[in-house]
Amino acid sequence: MTPGEEEQWFYWRRGGAAAVALVATLVLLGMVVLVAMTNSARDQALEAERHAYDVALLTRTADASIARAEAAVGRFALDEDMKSSGSRYYAQWRLAEQQISQLERSVSPDPQQQRRTAELRMLFNERGKQFSDVARYIAGRQKAYGLSYFYSISVKQNGVDDVGTRLRGKLSEIANAERAGLSEKIEESQLFSAEADRLTDYLSWLGVIVGLFAIFMGYIAVQALRLNAAARREAESESERAQALEQAVRDRTQELWEANQALKAEAVERQAAEAQLRQVQKMEAVGQLTGGIAHDFNNMLAVVVGGIDLARRRLNGPRREVMTHLTNAMEGATRAAALTRRLLSFARSEPLLPERLDTAILVGGMSELLDRTLGERIKVKTELANDAWPVFVDPHQLENAILNLAVNARDAMDGTGKLTIRSRNVTMDSNAVGDIRAGEYLVIEVSDTGCGMTPEVKERAFEPFFTTKAVGKGTGLGLSQIFGFAHQSGGEVGIESTVGKGTTVSIYLPRTDAQASNVRAHPAMQARAEDDMTVPGARILLVEDDPRVRTATVGALEDLGYEPIACASGAEALALFDSMEFDLVISDVIMPEMTGPEMIREMKSRRHDFAVLFVTGYVGEGEGDDLVGYDLLRKPFTVSTLASAVASASARRPSESRPIGGAAAAG
């Protein structure tokens, strides 16, 4: 090779080396740029991971704060510690609001998440309003309604999730959306990491090759390796941080589970304590009721026993004096019977004989009775709706209820004032008054201008034997009887009273669609002649298990001109029934071995050509249905009352008596 050729080769080699170095430098620079871009993308992916974990943590903490606030509202509604529960609820709710605000700032770059957080804020505000309503009801001494409302906002309504469920669902939706994005970012981060690793390998090989040509290229490669190592260490650090965050979330979840278990255990203990308290209250009410009954019956029995004893001692004395003592004894016995009737009405065990009733006619027909009872100094005014809805109630019991309210109003006005009786149609929501059900009602209001009731008296107005009247002026069963009658008729009773201005008692009776032709009127509402009505010579089968009542009834029937045959049980009555014919069967309702309705059912299966009259002093649960369609005489009764009942039952044709099993309702 000539020197020229060597010089030319040198230049070519130097130029080639320079070209190779330039190309290698450009390739190296390109690879360095690619590595830097890959690391930047990985940093962005890691930042997205941290953001997703932060959002998930915020949703969990917000959910926990809302749950603790809801638990505090529950304790506030149960009145365990109103001040402590109210403070705890306010603190937790404010904390939840701060956490949701932080959540809104965190997801602000994402339009979809912004929309979800806006819906979350609406649900949060709605839930806060519900909790505020609960607290307002409780603070307003409407604990029962507040507690009922709290339970109603915590469960599904007509298959629709409550606000709390939707609020927790929206938090879960936000967290799930972030988790979905987190999965994509993790995959992207892994992709960029793999790409960075692959480019680093290429860069290392190129650095070894180019290092033979230029130290600078080797230096750049070393720097690239250092940057790569630093990025890897940072990735490892972020991975450890993510694991620590996940462990913190697991620990927090465990704390929430333990808190939930504690709340469940507390709820069980509270239920047990409430059940024990209810039992104590029941026993206290039974003791109060027993003491009241014993006190009033002792007073009445003292009149009866004293009158009979004095009459017996003076049998040979003046007739007027004997009749005076007997009259006093009869009056005491009548008062005892009235007290028993009120007790049965209070216990909702008095059998009602309801019928479709036009209250305007009934109240209008009571004007003379009210004027005679209240006196001339009480002005009675009626405001009755012309289009009043019909009701299905016992007219006799409704008359007694209105009369009791009028007498109470007279006493509250001290014999002078204005009494207003009005009726109107109303549509009620559920629990608007007491435990009333939603529907259409006719309300009968009795208003006075008397002294009114204090809040303490108003709360106890329906308690048995509670009265503010002087000793001997009342038994305390009037409003209790009205309460029992209204509930037994499917309605409710409400009281509005202002001290010094007067009281209004409202009886809510449900509207009925029953037809008048399908209902037999209560015997007490039918016109009766005051003279005894008898059908002389009629043969009567009397079934009564009490020998003294049986003897007295037989004597009364014989005095009335009937032919009574008495027995003590249903089995004896069936044997007598098969051996001879009877025009009328008089039977007690409650008897051992076989009740009166069961006995009549058996007799009706054999023969239908006889009338039936039931006699009872008490009708137990389930017995009232069997009495519908038959005449009923309540114990105790007088001879004239017995005569009227026997005549009424005998006058009914056998075809009119419906089978006992066909009764639909007792009312």
From TrEMBL:
Its EC number is 2.7.13.3. Keywords: ATP-binding, Coiled coil, Membrane, Nucleotide-binding, Phosphoprotein, Transmembrane, Transmembrane helix. The keyword Transmembrane applies. Residues 539-650 form the Response regulatory domain. Residues 292-513 form the Histidine kinase domain. Residues 227-283 form a coiled coil. It is an enzyme of class 2 (transferase). It catalyses: ATP + protein L-histidine = ADP + protein N-phospho-L-histidine. The chain crosses the membrane at residues 16-37, 202-222. GO terms for molecular function: ATP binding; phosphorelay sensor kinase activity. InterPro entries: CheY-like_superfamily, HATPase_C_sf, HATPase_dom, His_kinase_dom, HisK_dim/P_dom, HisK_dim/P_sf, Sig_transdc_His_kin-like_C, Sig_transdc_resp-reg_receiver. Pfam families: HATPase_c, Response_reg. The modification 4-aspartylphosphate is found at residue 588. The keyword Membrane applies. This is histidine kinase. It comes from Sphingomonas cremea.
